[in-house]
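hey m, so remember when u said the tokens were messed up on ur end? i reran from scratch. heres the input so u can diff it against urs
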Amino acid sequence: MSKLYLLCELNDEDYAYAEHKFFKTYEEAKQAAIRSCKDWKSNCDIEIEDEGFRITARYEDSFYVTEIKQICPECGTHLLIWHHGYEGVDFEIRYQGTYEECERTMKKEIQELVDNYELIDEDICINTIDTGNEWEVFDIVEIGE
């Protein structure tokens, strides 16, 4: 079974707009993460955590977060990726399958958030949910190389 590495990236100004890139090796993904951090702010401080799977750039009060996730490209054509912003940043692969399966799972998870937080329509913008404390965002991404 082959592996791919997904690089997820998010800066502190665009919480709803994560970037996703795929790499054949962990080392390629790690080098791309470091490059992205340096491209964001060339004189930033870089922290490597989680055994190298989380690389964060910090500059004054700003940050740029990257996370690397290992995936199985044979297990489905699309990924449902969740992330949150404000109270920290984390990424999770919530589902892998067809686009339609990811979309169904996303709608179910959004409905659970609506029910748990008693949200109204103004709290939801397609794939971005404002819980009152932070934003929770779902992206469906086609797996590529």
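this time it looks ok to me. DSSP finds two helices and ten strands in the chain. if urs says something different then somethings off w ur setup not the seq
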